[in-house]
Design goal:
Layout lengths: L1 H14 L1 H5 L10 E3 L2 E3 L9 E5 L16 H10 L4 E7 L1 H4 L1 H4 L3 H7 L3 H10 L8 H14 L3 E8 L22 H14 L6 E5 L11 H18 L4 E4 L24 E6 L8 H4 L2 H21 L4 E6 L8 H17 L2 E4 L8 E2 L2 E2 L18 H7 L17 E6 L4 E4 L8 E3 L7 E3 L5 E3 L5 E3 L8 E3 L10 E3 L5 E5 L5 E6 L5 E4 L18 E5 L20 H10 L3
Length: 563
């Protein structure tokens, strides 16, 4: 019997090597930092692909527990591809005795939310009569049982919706923001979750803002807060936000943070479409993307080059897909995040709120779950961000040599090719070909002589072996640096594009001028550095079935230099 089992295991290895080779290794906690990367205990890159779960509003209970059991919500998070939750909490939860002593039932009763009480009694009866902090712990525990990491985010002090410049929660010294009480709260929270393995980080404060904000007090108190958290819980990542609603960390460039510990510091930034008003609607998308992306690099993106992890802890869009400002912003955002391979947290998981700004049962259109928390609001959005839920590169991820993938932000897909007979098209980034981009602007499939070529406007892009002509040179153009442009032999400039069947074609470049009525999304691409190997073991360039190809067609194509 033993001999049979051994032989069976050996046969399994022989027959299914790719399954074993590409099995996703379990991460080893706690997390730390290695230059700009977040890594596990084995030194392997861990990409935070998080979703924000709100627990800082007036009830001080994780949203949605009246709609679904917390375990089902946790499982839904995993199903959608997220590995992490940024879990918000108000400071008074841990520092205000009268609030902290309330049970979940009492918290909802004082707000008159009787329907929510009935819902929690039905879906999560185990927490209805426990204290608010115990209910918070129960959610963290449920996420841990489902292998979901948690970042504890101190969102504000007084429970309620965030944020405004004059809500008393914005900056040190504001009405509800006593720095000493804040450090006490951070210390208590860090101590409470010391030893809770899936709590991997603490975000010290959300969106510092308001008329009192200044750089000197930022250093004074954020460094104190960081030291307090690390002293109470040395395992967690310490995550620092910037000024101006967490859009500005530019002051770090010339004045590094001074801490007694190392290997745990992460910076966070927020980036929404509405951060720039209605610029995405009123302006030319190429110009707006170029300007906004450049500004983001100046204010926070530079940290990556300085060797710090940068966590985009909030971004999001109206999930209904009807907000033009959001839609255009998202195309640019996903391109930048893919290119930099940043960690991130989507706003928000929430499908509806118990009570938000005086409205009971408010529908959250930025939420990935629907009103009843039972289904995704927009499944195509989840598919679109799925490629960014896995790292492209980083320590311990050198599955293959460094190469480029051609990423298409509008779809979340990459340029692939299945065989000699199939055209280049969009497909899962896990199946992308490996490209090299040379100094002479040639895109070549790595390990081959085949380069990307343009034929005529309105036709399929192709691969060829004669790569010295202008139609084999590709340059990133426009302010956005997202159009891949080439010149045909007749001197006409064209851009890589995608047709209705997701085939890769070339067309006249669009939206290059100041026109704000057009949308360049189909022509936006990013060349992304990657060390991922393909999920498919065999590239289309293997010749196993070459004799099955139509001989004349194959040979004639090869003779003219294109496949």
């Amino acid at each position: 019997m033993g001999s049979f089992i051994s032989s069976s295991i050996l046969l399994l290895f022989l027959l299914f090597p790719t399954i074993i080779q590409h099995a996703k290794p379990a991460m080893s906690l706690p997390l730390s930092t290695n230059s700009r990367w977040i890594v596990d205990e084995e030194g392997r890159r861990v990409k935070l692909a998080c979703v924000n779960w709100v627990s800082h509003l007036e009830p001080v209970v994780a949203e949605g527990l009246s709609k679904q059991p917390m375990d089902m919500i946790a499982k839904r998070i995993v199903t959608m591809g997220f590995n992490c939750v940024r879990f918000t909490w108000p400071l008074f939860l841990i520092t205000n005795d009268s609030l902290a002593s309330l049970t979940v039932r009492q918290s909802f009763q004082r707000l008159g939310l009787l329907e929510s009480i009935a819902g929690i009694q039905s879906n999560n009866p185990s927490i209805i009569d426990v204290s608010l902090i115990k209910a918070y712990q129960a959610v963290v525990s449920s996420l841990g049982k489902n292998d979901v990491m948690v970042i504890l985010d101190n969102h504000l002090s007084k429970p309620g919706w965030c944020c405004s410049n004059f809500d008393g929660n914005g900056f040190f010294g504001d009405q509800y923001f006593n720095p000493d009480l804040w450090i006490t709260g951070l210390t208590r929270m860090a101590t409470l979750f010391n030893g809770v393995t899936n709590v991997v980080g603490m975000s010290l404060r959300n969106e510092l803002r308001g008329p009192k904000q200044n750089v000197n007090d930022w250093y004074r108190y954020m460094q104190k807060g960081a030291e307090a958290v690390h002293s109470a819980n040395p395992d967690v990542l310490v995550i620092l936000s910037g000024l101006s609603y967490d859009s500005d960390l530019s002051f770090i460039q010339n004045r590094p943070v001074q801490l007694s510990f190392s290997g745990k510091l992460v910076f966070e930034v927020h980036w929404y479409g509405f951060s720039d008003g209605q610029a995405w609607v009123t302006g030319n998308p190429n110009q707006v993307c170029g300007r906004v992306a450049k500004d983001m690099m100046r204010r926070s993106g530079f940290l990556v080059d300085q060797g710090y992890p940068l966590f985009v802890s909030e971004y999001g869009v109206d999930q209904r897909g009807t907000n033009v400002n959001d839609n255009r912003y998202l195309n640019c955002f996903l391109g930048v995040v893919a290119e930099l391979d940043l960690d991130w947290a989507l706003w928000t998981l929430v499908g509806s709120y118990y009570l938000r700004e005086g409205v009971i049962g408010l529908n959250e259109y930025y939420g990935v779950l629907n009103y009843n928390w039972c289904e995704t609001r927009n499944s195509s959005f989840i598919e679109r961000i799925s490629a960014l839920q896995s790292p492209f590169r980083g320590p311990g991820l050198s599955e293959t040599k460094l190469h480029k993938v051609i990423f298409h932000p509008s779809t979340g897909l990459c340029v692939i090719r299945k065989s000699f007979l199939d055209p280049l098209r969009l497909g899962p980034c896990a199946d992308s070909e490996s490209w090299s981009y040379s100094s002479d602007k040639t895109l070549v499939v790595k390990g081959t002589y085949f380069c990307l070529q343009a034929d005529e406007s309105g036709t399929l892009a192709k691969l060829g072996i004669f790569c010295s002509d202008s139609n084999s040179k590709w340059e990133m153009i426009a302010d956005s640096k997202m159009h891949l442009s080439s010149k045909l032999r007749n001197g006409k400039s064209i851009c890589l594009d995608v047709d209705s069947s997701n085939a890769i074609v070339t067309n006249s470049c669009k939206c290059i001028s100041k026109d704000n009525t057009c949308d360049p999304a189909s022509q936006w691409f990013k060349l992304v550095d990657s060390t991922r190997s393909r999920s498919e073991e065999q590239s289309f360039l293997h010749f196993d079935s070459i004799f099955d190809l139509p001989g004349k067609g194959f040979l004639s194509n090869l003779m003219v230099g294109s496949i």
